[in-house]
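Running low. Got one?
___
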Amino acid sequence: MILKPKFFIAALFLCALQVSINAQVSPHLLLAEGQYDALIKQLEPKSQSLDFPDSYYLALAYQQLGFPNKAIQCLTNTTATLNSQQLDLLCRCYLSTGDYTKALPIIKKTYQQTPANTVNLLRYAEVNHFYKEYEANVELLQEYTQQDSSNYNINLFLAESYEKTKQTSHAITTYQMILQAHPNNQKVALKLANLYYSDKQYVECHDLCMPYIERLENNKNFLLLAGMANFKNGSNHNVMVMFKRLEAQGDSSFLTKKHLGIASYRLENFDNATSYLKSAIKLKDDDPEVAFFLGASLGQSNQPLDGKLFLLIAQELIKPSPVLMEKTNLKLAMMHFDTGHYQMAINYYNKAYIYAPSNHQYLYRQASIYDYQLKDPDKAKELYQHFIDALPEDLNPKKGNELYAIKLKKVASNRLNNLIEEDFFKNGIN
């Protein structure tokens, strides 16, 4: 249908009127309605000549849409002194761009003016945290919590600052307080569990993780931490349970394979241990624990010397740790003894003794092999005597390991006397 001229003119007038009305919508109303794009479109062309509050509205629209640099340019494009609203927005923009150097003077000034303002305090704490001024944060936040100890964000910053300044007991107490008020907060629960773990409070770590493991569908973080805590605590059945649940959720990571393997070894399920540890070493071949326990597991098989290579690899990876060098040499000695390689067993017992010179039973074991396996009474007598002489005189029978040494000394003394008598009757008096 073709409009008559008078109707066409009227339509054009109404359209122009509508455009004019839209163009005249106040920036304040556009801001209130969240029409940031429209506000920018209206004010950006004259951004060089805007006065407050329009310059503030434009900067706020930029900031809301994720253009903090444009907001900063808009706010600083003036020689006039910025009011408190503008300074607050400028500070937020600097923080969002990570420009803490420029944010800090504003934060300090506003905090000094209104120290009870929680927003300013949190910003101050954020910058301190970035600059690793943890002790300053502790002092700053403690002062606030003396008046109000219920603020979640303040307490979280304070707990993290305690943790960073090695005030572990205070950090734990603060995390506990937060968690008591927010029991479903997985972030805080995991922070507290990790702190228990690093502080070697393994039982507490396990107990904290368990409720989250039972009620959360996505509970892998808590399963892993509980499994690690039980591993450190020597609770190998619990280690199996936690990492088996991770495995059932599709976890085939190195840590899962490693801990299932070592726990299986400690539970004397050597076939299971071998299987897991072989998988683990394929994923990461420079872990000394995996190499050691794989070698030890294979050492319990029908072909014990199959484990020798992995024990030697473990030795190369753990040098110069005397404790672990002792353990690997002990395993190698036992492995060679079980396969009838007695001289090699003696050599490895001797190496173990070098790394653990206070463990004198390695001398006894060498003497025993010379005595019963190699039938070399002279070397046996020499080492029995060396063993007896090396033991301290003041052994305490109330201590388990020293009681064992006392009993072993008695056995060695009797056997040494027997060998001397046998030698006397065999050779007579010269």
